[in-house]
Every structure is written in C-alpha cells, then in structure tokens.
Design brief:
single chain; mainly alpha; 324 residues
Amino acid sequence: MKILKKVYKTFMNGFTYIIPLAVVGGVFLTLSQQFDNTLLFNFGTTAIFLIYPILAGFIAFAISDRPGLMLGLISGGMIAFMGGGFLSASLAGFISGYIVVGFKYIFNKLPYGIKGLNPVFIYPVLGAILMFFVIQGLEIVIFPTELWVASSYQNIDKIYMIIIVGLLSYMMAYDLGGPINKCAYIIGILTILGGNDSYIMPAVMIAGMIPPLVIASSALLFKHKYNSDEYSLAKKNWLFGLSFITEGALSFVHKDKKIKYVLILASMTAGMLSVHYEVTSLVAHGGILSVFFIKNSFMFIFILLGVTLIYGFVLGILLPKKTA
C-alpha cells in the first residue's frame, strides 16, 4: 500500500503541472475553430504538445530532482513527437527518474573533481542513451494499445458512452476530490489530448460541480434543517461548485450517509444527461467559466441548474430537522 501511495503521489506531481496546459490548449483550439485563426491554433497545439514532456519531466523530477527533470522532458517530448500516448509518457517519466537514481548510486564514489560532470554530462548523456532504447520498447509494446484505445473511443456508440460517463460520474462523487475522483478526472483529460471535442470532459466536469451545488441549494430551500454553522458553510458551496471544487461537499458527507447517496445520484444524472444532449468541450477545467468554450453550453447550464435544484430539494426532504 505504501508503494502504491508513493507511485500515486509521484504521478500526481507530474499531472498537476499539465492541467493548465490542457486548459490553455483547449481554450485556444476552441477559439481557433470559432475564428479560423492560425495563430490561435498554433498556440493551442503547442500547449497540447507540451503536455507529455511536462508530465514525464515532473514525474522524473519528483523521483530524482533536477537531473531527472531534464531526462524526463526529453523522453516525454520524444513520446509526443512519435505519436505515443499518456501511458507511455507516464512510464517514460518514472523510468527516467529511476535511471537517474541508479546513476547517483553507481557514480556516487567518483573522485570529487569528476562528480561535477555527473549532472551536466554523465546523467543526461547516459540517461538519454538508455531512454533511446526504452522508448523504442514502448513504441513496440505500449503504443499499439494506446492507439487501439483511442480508436475504440472515437467509434464508441452513444449508449455505451452514456454508461461509461455514468460510471465516471459515480467516481467523481464517490470520494469528492480523493484518488477515485482524480482517476475519473484524468480519464476526462485523456479524451481531449488529441485535440478533438470530448463528450466525457464536460460530463466529468459537471459531475464534479454538482455535489457542492446540491448542498448549497438544499440549504437555500430547507434552511431550517441546517444549524447556523452548517448553513454558513453550505452557502460557500455555491462558489465551490461553480469553481469545480468538489471537495466543498466533504464535510457534509461525513455527517450523514444519505447525503453521499443523493450526491452520487445527482452527479450521475448530470453527467449522463450531458452526453445525451451532446454537450462537448476541449477545456479541462474552469467550472462555470468554461461554458464560454463548451459546445451546446445552453444545455450544460440547463442541466447544471435543473439537477442542482431537483436534487437539492430531494436532499432537503431526506434530511432530519436541524442537525446538532
């Protein structure tokens, strides 16, 4: 379990750095479609291209500090250039990082005067030579799987897409910002990395926005069922929800299991309706601000508002009068 936690923490160190790139890439690609502008398109594609180098680079950085960063950046760049995918870039980051860790152990006993060459010559050159062969292996073993997954996603029937989004929406509301929530969000981001409009990304986003908004609307409709502290916190969930900060609902879920079940159903409803009404987007974050870059944004807002109010009412009915 400790190993898994360490792997997760290391991976998230790289993943958090790519979110702004994914957002910028999505925004500029959407604008380039609307205004047919080459410079906007170039900005967007550059941001998308940098995702894999940055992901691999900062995964490696988390493992072996600055020497790993350089090797990870080169490896991730090669993955992007060769048409590899997210898994290949992640693996390249981990392998780059641990190659440098190995080098530090092997070359630790070199004379002091020569040690200065380690970070500027020995680690990068020998590391790049090793990663040259590693990437060729990834091209043979991992690239075909990534290509198959991407192709399957592009050709999936709408009914299966709705089922998949239902599962991802469940994950978004299950632990409200925890590891399972992050896995669903990562899958959403994966669907926009090819520069194509995604059904899953806006569905995952709306599913993550709904839990805090349901709490807030419930408090608005049933103020008498919340004590003063809870009501004050619930009001803040308007901002949390609109900002796509799912964690805002956490403190309420711990107090009553019924709340968690209602929030899960609400998220699943919103996510599945988003796909059904063909809401698509290239933007990975932004909450309510992302509506300016969402196709069929009217339905996105309508679903968000409708599910918020309906499930806020349901939650209020189920709650007992005034919690202590």
